[in-house]
């Protein structure tokens, strides 16, 4: 099996409550990893995870209400630090791209809310899709129950009826021409929505 050289987090985000952040800080220190917290202006914090050999990861947290929104973009080489960041990312349902870097290839994992949505294999010769998330039954039901398109169709039909009434009452060519143009646009939109 190929040995992983590094992990890279690209535009990764996660969110946690103040309690969860404090719990993480209590468990962050191990015999291999230590942490320090830098308090910045406007309630922002930066947590620095440091491996005994000196490698560091900087996590920025911005407080929004009672939630801390964390952001992370880094490349991690040390196995202990990789494990600590990986646990943090999974535990707090991270979103973003995680690259697992090997000697001859990179495996790109795209996460959304802590779940893998897509996996790609990147080699010098090109990229190959390995896995792509299919909708779960719950997601399909939510899409099925969503009625926003139906509401828009109903509003569009009412608009078309109003325009037809306006066209039938009008005697002026300019008004009829403008109404016909608006009716044509509405018909195209209605066709797209009903499709």
What percentage of amino acids are in beta strands?
35-45%
Instruction: Provide the domain count.
Output: 2
Tally of separate helices: 5
Q: From the alpha-carbon coordinates, what is the Rg to the nearest angstrom?
A: 26 Å
User: Which class of secondary structure composition applies to the elements?
Assistant: alpha+beta
Please give the alpha-carbon distance between the first and last residues: 48 Å
- Report the mean per-residue pLDDT as an integer: 87
| Overall helicity | 25-40%
Q: What's the arrangement of strands in the largest beta sheet? A: 2-3-4-5-1-6-7-8-9
Number of strands: 9
Largest β sheet strand count, sense and barrel closure: 9 strands, antiparallel
Low-pLDDT parts are: none
Order of helical and strand elements: EHEEEEHEEEEHHH
Keywords: Coiled coil
Coiled coil: 146-173
Protein name: Non-ribosomal peptide synthetase module
